[in-house]
From TrEMBL, chain A:
It holds the Pfam family CRLF2_D1. PANTHER family: CYTOKINE RECEPTOR, INTERLEUKIN 2 RECEPTOR SUBUNIT GAMMA. It comes from Otus sunia. Residues 406-429 are annotated as: Disordered. This is Fibronectin type-III domain-containing protein.
TrEMBL record, chain B:
It is found in: Secreted. This is Interleukin-7. It comes from Otus sunia (Oriental scops-owl). The keyword Transport does not apply. Residues 1-28 form the signal peptide.
Length: 429, 184
């Protein structure tokens, strides 16, 4: 039967008395199983090492794996974690508040060096031992260190033997302190700090920072000094630093906690914009986890004040100004005419034409009547025949020379009423 | 009487002298004398530590299931003695060189381990007691490994590999100790 991974495994009891020994199953890191002839189940490691046998009738808790199969409970402890805090003291933990209620004892030794000793200072939670505290005199680095944890419940005892540990690889330094920002030339900032860890040459540091306009933090692993080139004086920067033992002195992934932050820059809601040169605001944090209150007088109130100005007053004032301008524009025709000039209307010049002369353009224009008549389509003009009276004593009339009828007009039309393009030519005198 | 005393005196001298001659090679160091901790530290940080990191990373890539809960011979060479870090490093480096010809270990791994050993001896300016091992360093330093085809397959876990892996781990720890304690 499988339960929620990775802490559950099936339990196949063989005898009523030997319930614990029959636990067979797996966790995310390996398998607990009992081999033939063995008294206690043994741990077959997978991805992780460690002996994790079974202990019966134990409740489920943090750091343990249990399974319920009928009336049987199996327990396994996933291991012990040791951390050296700034090389001042060490804790080895095997449980937490939810750890099952059993009697725990820890024994430790340094391989080929010292006898086995029991923990002198247990760490307890609600009466249950969950760890061991080691002071500086009990810590030896660069010597393989091993612990054995005995967990007893009733008549059964569980023994967990750890792998050899190198304590120099389990050092967690304290967070850096005294973060200080200096203004260098050409818009460059320099961040320095000090570390409570005694051997500074064994540390590497990581800095994370962002401005008030950024959404993500920028991470950089640096030496002892961090420089930020080309800062923007309009922005507000926040810096954090943490430390780790470098690869020259150990092999660890244990970073310290982040330091108390230090800030730099001009807050955009401040009145600093009125000045020509923005004044950088420098804070120096007094100690870990503490900040002097007088360094931040009324910051929240100022921020609220500027919030109301920016989001309420300024928009309302802008709208009112706009409204006034529109009203003025509409009311003052002089301004309106300049902005919206009138379209020229020449109709006044033609009032006489339409009112007095009823649209008679010729009459309004003063065109002579006969010219007007000549433009009419049915216009006809009588031909005016012009003839020359012969003199009294002169020769015969000209018409006698031929049979031609007298032609009074050279080229005169035979049908004077015909439409002809020449009919309008003036033939009479 | 004076004759007997003279004979006794010379006999005692002649007994002591051979003893001194016998013991002297054990006490003499094959490392260069002088306080060179600053130079050693610079070379370790700038050059050797990177090769050691690469070698440790290579160790993690090989199967080591057969190495669990095994105790090895010559375990004394795996300790970094207090105030004798340089001598301990020399001992570890010389011991590592004997794996150079072990065919059961991957060739890339052997070469890298030999490179680190020779680098350690060079930085410390030490020599191994057996001159045969110095020839390994000459071969490693002059031979261009990159031109050879690197192995594609990884070899099975074996005890020689486990010993070498533990030796490498001890060497790295001893260097860490040297670096940490040097500015005590």
């Amino acid at each position: 039967m499988q339960g929620p991974a990775p802490l559950w495994w099936p339990c196949s009891p063989q005898t009523a008395q030997d319930v614990a020994s029959s636990c067979v199953g797996r966790t995310g890191a390996g398998t607990a199983q009992r081999k033939e002839g063995a008294e206690e189940p043994a741990w077959v490691p997978g991805a992780a090492d460690g002996d994790v046998p079974c202990l019966p009738r134990a409740p489920l808790g943090h750091g343990t794996a249990t399974h319920r199969c009928g009336a049987q409970w199996c327990l396994s402890l996933v291991g012990v974690e040791c951390v050296l805090f700034n090389e001042e003291y060490m804790t080895c933990m095997w449980g937490s508040r939810e750890t099952l209620t059993a009697n725990y004892s820890l024994y430790y030794w340094y391989e080929n060096r010292s006898p086995v000793e029991e923990c002198k200072h247990y760490l307890q939670d609600q009466g249950v031992s969950i760890g061991c505290y080691f002071n500086r005199s009990e810590i030896i680095q660069f010597q393989p260190f091993r612990v054995l944890i005995n967990a007893s419940l009733g008549s059964r005892t569980l023994k967990i033997l750890s792998k050899p540990m190198e304590l120099q690889d389990l050092v967690k330094p304290e967070a850096p302190v005294n973060l200080t920002i200096r203004n260098m030339s050409s818009n460059q900032l320099q961040l320095t700090w000090t570390s409570p860890y005694p051997k500074a040459q064994c540390l590497e540091h990581a800095v994370k920072y962002k401005s008030n306009k950024d959404t993500n933090w920028t991470h950089q692993v640096k030496g002892d000094i961090f420089s930020l080139p080309s800062v923007d004086y309009e922005k507000y920067y926040t810096f954090y630093v943490r430390s780790k033992i470098n690869s020259y002195c150990g092999s660890t992934q244990l970073w310290s906690e982040w330091s108390v932050p230090v800030v730099w820059g001009s807050n955009s809601t401040s009145k600093g914009r009125a000045t020509d040169v923005p004044t950088p605001l420098l804070w120096r944090c007094a100690g870990q986890g503490s900040m002097s209150p007088q360094l931040f007088p009324g910051t929240a109130e100022e921020q609220l004040h500027w919030f109301w100005i920016h989001t309420v007053l300024i928009p309302i004032a802008s709208c009112l100004l706009l409204l006034v301008l529109v009203v003025l524009l509409v009311r003052m025709e002089r301004v309106w005419v300049i902005l919206m000039p009138r379209i020229p209307n020449p109709s006044k010049n033609f009032d006489e034409l339409f009112i007095t002369h009823n649209g008679n353009f010729q009459e309004w224009a003063g065109v002579p009547k006969d010219v007007v008549e000549s433009f009419r389509p049915n216009y006809s003009e009588n031909i005016c025949y012009v003839s020359e009276l012969p003199p009294k004593d002169s020769c015969e009339p000209l018409w006698e020379s031929g049979n031609h009828p007298p032609s009074v007009m050279p080229g005169a039309p035979a049908a004077p009423r015909e439409h002809s393009p020449y009919k309008n030519s003036y033939v009479g005198v | 009487l004076s004759h007997v005393m003279a004979t006794t005196f010379f006999r005692s001298i002649f007994r002591v002298l051979p003893l001194l001659l016998l013991l002297s090679p054990v006490n003499s160091s094959s490392c260069a004398m002088g306080n060179r901790t600053t130079q050693i530290r610079e070379k370790y940080e700038n050059i050797l530590s990177h090769d050691i990191d690469e070698l440790v990373n290579m160790s993690a890539e090989y199967r080591d299931r057969c190495c669990k809960n095994k105790k090895h011979e010559n375990s004394k060479v795996f300790f970094c003695n207090d105030t004798q870090e340089i001598e301990s490093l020399q001992s570890m480096a010389c011991n590592m060189l004997r794996f150079f010809h072990k065919q059961k270990i991957s060739k890339d791994y052997r070469w890298k381990a030999a490179l680190v050993s020779c680098g350690t001896l060079q930085v410390l300016q030490c020599k191994c007691e057996r001159h045969k091992k110095d020839k390994v360093c000459m071969q490693v330093n002059t031979h261009n490994k990159d031109t050879e085809k690197s192995e594609q397959s990884k070899k099975k876990c074996n005890q020689e590999f486990c010993e070498l892996k533990e030796n490498i781990s001890s060497l790295r720890s001893c260097w860490n100790k040297f670096e940490k304690i040097i500015f005590r």
